[in-house]
Amino acid sequence: SLEKDSQLVHWNHNDDIVLASTKSRSAELSEDDIGLKMRAELANTTWGRDTYELVKRGDVKTMSFGFQIVRQEFDETDPKNIKRTLKEVRLFEVSIVPYPAYPQTNVKARSIDDALKEYRDAKKSEQPVLVDNSEILKEQDKGFRKIKIKLLTEE
């Protein structure tokens, strides 16, 4: 469902509070060996700014997902410790939440400036850089500044 469906990022599963979306490209979702990864540029709204601040301060650190199970498997090797593996799900939404169903999830806040600084610092110290996002970050930064300037100059 990551490739097919447009996904929304919400605050605490509240459908009325949309923070980002894959349709507008303000959110990106991908899957790796560990699970679902999300990158989002939160909306410049009261909820978006408040969510960013709560995550940045560490008051809210977790995520939750709305999904429907399509395919699952059970490992009953140890009857006292039955393991369920979700093989395929249909994702409905992703939420930043204070009380997650899965406590091992996490969310962190960083600004575009922090990401660019992290990249440049790693490059200076000759540590391996996993992904070269410098051009993307520069373009996003330009767009952010244009929006900010536009908002400040509109009457």
Write the layout of secondary structure elements.
Blueprint: E1 8-11, E2 14-21, E3 27-31, E4 36-40, H1 46-57, E5 62-75, E6 83-97, H2 112-124, H3 134-153
Parallel strand pairs: 1-6
Antiparallel strand pairs: 1-2, 3-4, 5-6
Helix pairs in contact: 2-3
What does this protein structure show overall?
With 155 residues, the chain is of the alpha+beta class. The protein is 29% helix and 33% strand. It contains 3 helices and 6 strands. The chain has helices at residues 46-57, 112-124, 134-153, and strands at residues 8-11, 14-21, 27-31, 36-40, 62-75, 83-97. β5 and β6 (83-97) form a beta hairpin. The relative contact order is 0.15. Mean pLDDT is 78; it is low at 128-133 and 143-155.
Q: What is the ordering of alpha helices and beta strands?
A: EEEEHEEHH
Task: Note the gap between the termini.
Answer: 42 Å
**Helix vs. strand class:** alpha+beta
* Radius of gyration over all CA atoms, rounded: 18 Å
**For the report, how would you describe the main beta sheet?**
4 strands, mixed
Shape: globular
Low-confidence stretches: 128-133, 143-155
Strand order, main sheet: write it out: 2-1-6-5
Q: What is the percent of helical residues?
A: 25-40%
How many E-type strands? Answer: 6
- Strand percentage lies at 25-35%
Give the overall pLDDT as a whole number. Answer: 78
How is this structure best summarized?
By secondary structure, this protein is an alpha+beta fold.
